[in-house]
């Protein structure tokens, strides 16, 4: 790196209010008594400092329409110069178009969806106006792909993304967990038919994806379309960074994945901070 600090942007993290942090870990099956490992802002900032992470992006999940306001109010309050947040959006909330406008006015960097936790099928035609408005506002989108330790009807994989991506031609669409490859991959799924505005993030790859599979998928899809994501606190920033650095990609390709690609997507939001 020629003595220069490498730009690292973590596109995929989660934090919660202190009162909910322990419950969040219990729900995820990771309950413990170590306060330093709770998913709260201070602990995320500590991990970022330890690993020289320049910026982390919080990905709030609105699991029920009734939680729309509270979840995003918290996300807005915890933002700092080195912490951006996407807004959470439940597709079935009242006045969804107005809620998208609110997220834009709040300065959110994009919109996050988690189909299994939200229990929605994002490919349904009734959501097309929502997608079109997100595209109109040029809002980046991140979507959880793969399973999530629960009933499977709402799992989303690339074949499902192909059905909704036609409404989002002008915005970056980030498929978490390498498009589902690091969350119990589904046989027969392919990334080959996805357009150039679709990206992948590496959340949970260090913990759950064979390095050879990661190298193959990222090489075929293009290192310029892969974003570093740790899935903090469920994944480790340290392990996720090492996973990319220890891969067989060139140093230039590793730099793109660790921060350069995210900077292309979030550059305007970062410069405004």
Question: Can you tag this structure with a few keywords?
Answer:
12 helices, 6-stranded parallel β-sheet, 3-stranded parallel β-sheet, TIM Barrel, alpha/beta, 273 residues
What would your notes on this structure say?
The mean pLDDT is 92. The protein has helices at residues 18-27, 41-51, 68-78, 96-105, 115-118, 128-136, 158-164, 176-180, 205-208, 211-221, 237-245, 251-271, and strands at 9-13, 55-58, 83-85, 87-88, 111-113, 141-143, 173-175, 198-201, 226-227. It has one domain: TIM Barrel. The chain has 12 helices and 9 strands. The protein is an alpha/beta fold. The longest helix has 21 residues, at 251-271. The protein starts with 8 loop residues before the first strand and ends with a helix.
Number of helices: 12
H-E string: EHHEHEEHEHHEHEHEHHEHH
Q: Report strand %.
A: 5-15%
How many separate structural domains?
A: 1
**CATH homologous superfamily classification:** Metal-dependent hydrolases
- Helix percentage range: 40-55%
Please give the order of strands in the largest beta sheet: 4-5-6-7-8-9
By CATH, the topology is TIM Barrel
Q: For the report, how would you describe the main beta sheet?
A: 6 strands, parallel
The total count of strands amounts to 9
Overall pLDDT confidence: 92
Spatial extent as radius of gyration: 17 Å
Proper CATH architecture: Alpha-Beta Barrel
- Low-confidence sequence ranges: none
**CA-CA gap between termini:** 26 Å
CATH class: Alpha Beta
């Amino acid at each position: 790196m020629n003595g220069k600090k490498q730009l690292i942007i973590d596109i995929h993290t989660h934090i919660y209010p202190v009162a909910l942090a322990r419950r969040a870990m219990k729900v995820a099956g990771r309950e413990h008594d170590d306060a330093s490992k709770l998913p709260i802002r201070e602990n995320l900032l500590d991990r970022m400092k330890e690993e020289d992470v320049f910026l982390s992006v919080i990905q709030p999940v609105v699991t029920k329409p009734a939680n729309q306001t509270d979840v995003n109010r918290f996300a807005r309050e915890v933002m700092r110069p080195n912490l951006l947040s996407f807004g959470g959006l439940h597709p079935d909330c009242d006045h969804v178009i107005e809620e998208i406008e609110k997220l834009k006015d709040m300065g959110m960097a994009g919109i996050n969806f988690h189909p299994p936790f939200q229990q929605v099928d994002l490919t349904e035609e009734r959501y097309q106006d929502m997608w079109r408005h997100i595209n109109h506002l040029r809002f980046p989108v991140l979507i959880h792909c793969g399973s999530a330790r629960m009933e499977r009807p709402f799992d989303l994989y690339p074949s499902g993304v192909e059905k909704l991506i036609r409404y989002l031609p002008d915005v970056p669409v980030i498929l978490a967990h390498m498009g589902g490859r690091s969350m119990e991959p589904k046989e027969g799924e392919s990334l080959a038919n996805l357009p150039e505005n679709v990206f992948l993030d590496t959340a949970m790859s260090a913990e759950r994806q064979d390095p050879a599979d990661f190298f193959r998928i990222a090489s075929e899809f293009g290192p310029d379309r892969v974003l570093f994501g740790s899935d903090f606190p469920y994944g480790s920033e340290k392990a996720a960074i090492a996973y990319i650095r220890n891969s067989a990609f060139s140093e230039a390709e590793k730099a793109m994945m660790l921060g350069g690609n995210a900077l292309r997507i979030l550059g305007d939001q970062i410069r405004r901070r």
